[in-house]
Design brief:
Number of domains: 1
Helix content: 40-55%
Largest sheet: 3 strands, mixed
Structural class: mainly alpha
Distance between the termini: 40 Å
Number of strands: 3
Shape: elongated
Radius of gyration: 14 Å
Bound molecules: zinc ion
Strand order of the largest sheet: 2-1-3
Strand content: 5-15%
Length: about 110
């Protein structure tokens, strides 16, 4: 059912959904993941926030950018843990944090 199997990666993306196949890197439609609607909505909210905070955001300072990225990654990590709990051991799930700041300031 799921692309190459049950290995998925949660990674925010600009203009696409934040769930990926860990094997072939294809984007996976969020509705293909059997998690409750409430969690899907929060995942989409988190993904939208990524675009606003880190892609489109006109930041004032490097510190502010790093702070927003840290918040984004904490939130994403927390969402990933909740998705893991809901899907159980049938799926292998990893979280890929944003490292845009490395490209911008590194
Ligand atoms: Zn795949």
């Amino acid at each position: 059912m799921l692309c190459c199997g049950r290995k998925i990666k949660i990674e925010a993306a600009f203009a696409s959904e934040p769930i990926w196949c860990s094997v072939c890197k294809s984007n996976i439609p969020i509705d293909d993941i059997p998690i409750k609607q409430e969690l899907i909505q929060e995942l989409q909210e988190w993904n939208r926030a990524f675009s606003v905070w880190l892609v489109d955001y006109k930041f004032k300072s490097t510190e502010e950018y790093f702070e927003l990225e840290t918040r984004h990654n904490q939130w994403g990590n927390e969402l990933t843990e909740r998705i893991k709990k809901e899907l159980g051991h049938a799926f292998f799930i990893v979280f890929a944090p944003s490292n845009l700041s490395l490209y911008m300031y590194g």
